[in-house]
Write a structure and sequence with these properties.
By secondary structure, the chain is of the alpha/beta class. The protein is about 20% helix and about 25% strand. It is built from six helices and 13 strands. The strands form two sheets. A seven-stranded mixed beta sheet has the order 4-5-6-3-2-1-13. A six-stranded mixed beta sheet has the order 7-8-9-10-12-11. The longest helix has 13 residues.
């Protein structure tokens, strides 16, 4: 008998879901239904241009036509002028931005009840490549995790007694991030404000969770010490 209510998670797609979710890379997808969910850990990036392009229309239709439901948190490489003005509705117990018939944006700091799993969503990150980007065109001020985001997350966690099944963010608390960064960049890596705020959230609250998932660092790696976290890039993983 086919498993029901499945949840999969993957990393950054940067505007092209076929990089991670093609039938070759994600063969499980063909057997799913709209009750099954794929969560993208930020840098969704399809809603990028002020005026929708044919390529964006193609990829949104490609995702909507898939048998599963697609959810995503925001990363740093997003057009927040578009994300922040999406129509909203409540599903999974909290507000989402509506992108398509089965594509939804999970907003920062809310706990969602997704297929019998409580998941804290907390997107956002600092762009380390901002020297190559232009404000309002390829980088937006809302990319960073803010104190208000952390306060909203804290309030959401209070409602569930600081216990969730999973935490899903784009970047990671610094104590995780320093091990997730690819080795070739480790020498120049230092904590940024978004990582610091996630560390504060984690270390000032006794949060109980099975695992913390994040993307951002373009690496597929599991916590080598305590099995507390997983960083995903182009790998797709099914939740327990």
């Amino acid at each position: 008998m086919k498993d029901s209510n499945r949840v999969f998670v993957t990393g950054d797609i940067h505007g092209n879901p076929q990089l991670n979710l093609s039938s070759k890379d994600f063969p499980e997808g063909k057997d799913l239904t709209k009750q099954d969910v794929v969560i993208i850990l930020g840098d969704f990036g399809i809603l990028w241009h002020k005026f929708r392009t044919k390529e964006e229309d193609y990829f949104l239709k490609w995702l909507d036509d898939k048998p599963w439901t697609t959810l995503f948190i925001d990363g740093n490489h997003e057009n927040f002028d578009i994300l922040n003005t999406l129509p909203q509705k409540y599903i999974f117990g909290s507000p989402v931005g509506i992108v398509g018939h089965s594509i939804f944006h999970l907003k920062r700091g809310f706990v969602y009840r997704i297929n019998k799993r409580n998941i804290l969503a907390l997107g956002g990150a600092h762009s380390h490549d901002r020297i190559y980007r232009k404000w309002g065109e390829s980088m937006w001020k809302d990319e960073e995790i803010t104190d208000d985001d952390i306060e909203r997350a804290t309030q959401s966690l209070e409602k569930v007694a600081f216990e969730v099944d999973y935490i899903m963010s784009h970047c990671a608390p610094f104590e995780y991030a320093k091990y997730a960064i690819p080795k070739e960049f480790a020498g120049s890596f230092s904590m940024d404000p978004s990582e610091e705020r996630l560390s504060i959230l984690k270390n000032t609250n006794d949060i109980k969770f099975k695992k913390w998932f994040f993307g951002h660092y373009h690496n597929n790696i599991d916590d080598p010490f305590m099995n507390q976290w997983t960083c995903l890039y182009d790998k797709v993983m099914e939740l327990e």
